[in-house]
Amino acid sequence: MSQTYDYQQILNTIEESLRPYCNRGDIADYIPELAKIDSDQFAMSLCFNDGREYSVGDFRTPFSIQSISKVFVLTIAMQLVGEELWGRVDREPSGNAFNSLVQLETEMGIPRNPFINAGALISTDVIIQETNNAYDEILDLVRRISLNQNIKFNEKVANSEYSEGDRNAALAYFMKSFGNINSTVDELLRVYFAHCSIEMNTLDLARSFLFLANGGIVPYTGDVIIPAGSAKRINSIMMTCGLYNNVGDFAYSVGLPAKSGVGGGIAAVLPGEFSLAVWSPGLNENGNSLRGIKGMEIFTSLTNQSIF
Ligand code: GLU
Questions:
Q1: d(Cα 91, Cα 240) in Å, to the nearest integer?
Q2: 308 assigned to some structural domain
Q3: Residue 15: which domain range?
């Protein structure tokens, strides 16, 4: 089925039809360094397991992946401790903002899922505790799956978030009080903000999600990242928890497992077929890229390719 469409033409059509939405939405200005970004930008990249790649717009421009890094740290934490992880973090949608504290008190310091901030702090804690150098571990994985050795942290963005990081610090201290964090809060936050600050363009991002569309193996290189069963589970958590409080609406309008970030990126997969990454910094009221969601909706509508 996938051969029957002119995908480049479809991406061009999407870019064109989203022009009227230029400058709509709000930049994530709670991170001072991200407040400087030009909200006009738009890019989309599509990579198939069989090697075909298509891109449109500002797809060579790197952007801050922010919460999309939660997928990468979850992948590493699952590699390191397997099922043990699920004693420390749950797998249910939260129905709350990504940085909310409210459920943690009644749920004894166990975050609802690995894709809210509290849950990603658990994955980050696992990496710090189980490896010699959490920073290297994270960069190694991201470079392997994106096939780009130049991927790095943006220290300015990480420091900028650290300087305004009181709420994430509160989440970390709160979980630590329940015995669910082992690292020092300062080290935990440093590593967490570092992985949120990773910069990629949409082509890097689409490539880096292909292992999730291909049973845990990077299709271009044959590099085995995780067992097929773990890839299936990460995809299911993306489907139910990947889009903050838009997850139901995104499932309805797009129908792909995906993860968004407040940098304006969204990465999605159709297992067995492709990965799709979009970036546009203007966010809706739930912190998801406004044009990004619309672009993905148009894509799955025009191609009739979704998991449903
Ligand atoms: N670094 C951001 C934060 O912790 C990530 C938020 C996001 O992209 O959802 O607030």
A1: 8
A2: no
A3: 2-302
Give residue 25's pLDDT: 86
Taking the C-alpha atoms of residue 213 and residue 231, their distance in angstroms, rounded to an integer, is: 8
pLDDT tops 60 at residue 2: no
Backbone torsions φ then ψ of 273, nearest 5 degrees: -125, -70
Q: Which residue has the tokens 């967490």?
A: 192
Backbone angles phi, psi at 203, to 5 degrees: -70, -45
Q: What residues act catalytically? A: 67, 70, 192, 244, 262
67: CA distance to ligand 1 center in Å? Answer: 5
**1 pLDDT more than 70:** no
255 CB less than 6 Å from ligand 1? no
pLDDT score recorded for residue 3:
53
What are the structure tokens assigned to 202, written together?
A: 């949409």
Q: What is the pLDDT of residues 34-68, one digit of tens each?
A: 888 888 899 999 999 999 999 999 999 999 999 99
* Within-domain flag for 257: yes
Total domains in the fold of the chain: 1
The number of angstroms, rounded, from the C-alpha of 118 to the middle of its chain's C-alpha atoms is 15
**Within-domain flag for 307:** no
Place of tokens 């979704």: 306
Which H or E element spans position 200?
A: strand 199-200
Here the tokens at position 64 are: 């801050």
Phi, psi of 86 (to 5 degrees): -75, -5
Does residue 224 lie within any of the structural domains?
yes
CA distance 113 to 243: 12
Ligand 1 lined by 66 (C-beta under 6 Å): yes
Give the pair of three-digit tokens for residue 130.
Answer: 């189980």
How much of the chain, in percent, has pLDDT values that exceed 90? 85
- State the pLDDT at residue 124: 98
The enclosing domain of 256 has a CATH number of: 3.40.710.10
How far is residue 248's CA from residue 33's CA, in Å, rounded to a whole number? Answer: 30
- Report the C-alpha gap between 130 and 144 in whole angstroms: 20
Mean pLDDT for 224-228 is 98
The SS3 assignment for 286 reads coil
